[in-house]
């Protein structure tokens, strides 16, 4: 290197031009170049190189002889990996001092045709309508080459190696675009084309590769549907609705499932009533014939239909002309057993209220549609809630079983609903239900009834001398109101003191015409309804005329309350309620006093019975007389000490009987054994029956204390589970004269 005026100039010997070497060079090591510095020192020059392929990746491709400066290639090169290497060359003396500035060493890898073309896809796909014109481009295939694009090694050319005998497609050798080559593409003939395409480098003369191009023909509606045969036969049962009768089969060459393939059917002739319908099966494209309206074998037993078919989409103009597809469908209607039919359903009839049993109401019959079959119908009542009707099973005549009453819980707005069942005798039998609606016509069989039947008015005209009268009628309109009120025509004298004027359709006003004395009055009134014919009856109205106060009201409220009935005033009503409450209080006090008296008597009896008596208990209760509480009318000691009867000059008598002469009685001998008790009792009975001075017959058999633990209970033990307050002794008055005393003591 020489340096002059600050500028540096590299000597020509140290500048190394680019070195070219072919890729895939097989002679290794291969001398590429020798570099040399003209500043050689006495001791010599040391050369070195650095850069990719030396001390950088990829390592070891290049090397240099440090003394001679020869650069060698130590490995095969691949241009597709590295198309050039840029190295730095250095020159040093033996001491390591730089003799020259580093210089560039560029090694260019020369390309060889060592890479085949590659298609971007193994399979290319395209679509084109059938019948497409020539020159219609479908798809483009393309390939790449890893070789140097600036050389023929990457110059590609395309071609079709195989597509079938028709050669329907062509390819642009430079661009790889595939287009139709001729007319006549028919999807129904060939639906898919498989083309084998090739790409070659070296402008078609070098390395090659292949791929597949698949071209699908898209369907157009160029084929109309056609019936598979001209006639179809089917059968269907009568009265069947909505059922499928059968199918008419068609064939269409167009793509199955597409709108070009889908068929549409029409019934052209043979079904003026619209009894049939036809639809398309979306899966098979066949026509499905079904029943749209009930068929009747007795009316028409066969049909001959003309059916046409076409596509949902119109045919393409390029499609060949063809006649309309037609087919004949014959349908035979099969006869089956049909249920009876009530032509009039519901049947509405009318019958008069109170019609006697056996009255004919109507003949409710059905008809059997099976006129070609010999069948008979029978009838029965299916629903007759009030059991009012009877039905003749063969004729269908309906009569009343009992009188039809009104009102009734079984009537709905005056109508009685029953159901009639008609059944044929086929196997199996069929039945029908008819509704019978019977209107119970109202009959004017009730006269109006006066309400109220009593009242109070003041005895002078004007205020207080009026009373509002009303009436009710059990009949329904129009046999009820308006009502007509009038004084009985049989008593014309009533019109001098009384008048009746209409108030509304159900009420009238009774008015006093002159001064009337106080007291009760009975006015015969004639009430008439508006029925046809009208019903009328004469009824008594009890009127109490009272003394009128200044304000026109009755002053004597008690009289009004006693005689007015439904027409009493508020004051009279309060007096009646007060009197009733007072009466109830008095009755309650009397009942409480009677109960207290019974308790006192019972305590006295228990005190008398408290002493032990060792005599045998008397268990024979034939007739007990007045009961154990009837002790205040005689002395019990007469039975305890019968010897006193002989000592007394006059026997005690009942205080409630008239005095009579008493007969002396001999002392009675007590029984010595239990077997003598019967004789002792009988003797006592005879003495008591024959002596008028002893208590009367109904009390003669009241006996002494019976001892403890007697199996017989005293009379007070009746209904012993209840207290005295809970017992009702009124029934004693119904037991006859012997229990009259008990009834007086215990009754309320």
UniProtKB/TrEMBL annotation:
CDD domains documented for this protein: Cadherin_repeat (cd11304)
Every Cadherin domain range: 13-119, 120-227, 237-342, 343-450, 469-559
Ranges where the record places region Disordered: 645-676
Top-rank taxon: Eukaryota
GO cellular component: adherens junction; catenin complex; cell surface
Stretches with biased composition (Low complexity): 664-675
Protein keywords: Calcium, Cell adhesion, Cell membrane, Cleavage on pair of basic residues, Glycoprotein, Membrane, Metal-binding, Repeat, Signal, Transmembrane, Transmembrane helix
Subcellular location: Cell membrane
One GO term (biological process): adherens junction organization
Bilayer disposition of the protein: Single-pass type I membrane protein
InterPro entries per the UniProt record, alphabetical: Cadherin (IPR039808), Cadherin-like_dom (IPR002126), Cadherin-like_sf (IPR015919), Cadherin_CS (IPR020894), Cadherin_Y-type_LIR (IPR000233), Catenin-bd_sf (IPR027397)
Keyword Zinc: no
Keyword Signal recorded: yes
Listed Pfam families: CADH_Y-type_LIR, Cadherin
TM regions (residue ranges): 570-592
Major localization class: membrane
Alphabetized GO MF terms: beta-catenin binding; cadherin binding; calcium ion binding
Function: Cadherins are calcium-dependent cell adhesion proteins. They preferentially interact with themselves in a homophilic manner in connecting cells; cadherins may thus contribute to the sorting of heterogeneous cell types. M-cadherin is part of the myogenic program and may provide a trigger for terminal muscle differentiation.
Protein known as: Cadherin-15
